[in-house]
Amino acid sequence: MEIISYGGGVQSTAMIVLAAQGRIPATHAVFANTGDDSEHPATLEYVRNVAAPWAAEHGVEVVELHNTRFGQPETLWGRMMREGSKSVPLPFYQPETGAPVGRACTADFKVKVIGRWLKANGANKDTPATVNIGISLDEIHRLHNRKPEPYEQNEYPLIDLRLTRQDCANIIERAGLPVPPKSACFFCPFHRLQGWKEQRRDSPELFDKACQLESAVNERRAAAGNYPVYLSRTLRPLSEVTEAQQDLWSVMDDSCDSGYCMV
Ligand code: SF4
Question: Is the model's pLDDT at 246 over the cut of 70?
């Protein structure tokens, strides 16, 4: 079995086009949806209404998967907002070190979900599935960030084909498709500061929800005697950062593209 690990962004959409052209021998593009209340709505719109129909017409099946808990669907937003939840699965920034506290979200809502599907479809350590991961040449530093599981063998076709992110966008456009927006949960702490600013301007309802999530997590943490954690790397509440620290955009807008979990 050979699949594309599909995140709904530029690189993995380019892999679908390459598969349709016979340049990647994958039959399925597997999209682990962290939740309709968690993925950016523009990504879901693109995956379902643009990429999936086009892929189907060109012999590639887009498979959408969801995480479950006790047999019921569980979204990332739902896990964090559940009453009494102690879970902090996002890579929130902690005040002491300024570093992210961890990143269970990628493992629980992406890697394990795809892994279960691969195993259900016959992948195992003796016959591992080939998983094509969309890391482009300009992101080569991310190449071995994740150790493969025993049931999978990772391939990096965009590196092999020497393709950059811009090349991927060109491939998508030449196929007659619109270039997708960056894919990530709308509340992902790996957003650039500029990304938060744009979200506040362009999608204020999503921005308000991200602020609401940060507040809810910190209210629970305060009640348990824990220090606050932040969605923004400036270590300030999201609502304050974007209003009070406009001057920081230019000096703190370093890249966090590698943080997007394009598995
Ligand atoms: S996009 Fe961000 S928040 Fe969503 S699963 Fe990936 S790392 Fe976690």
Answer: no
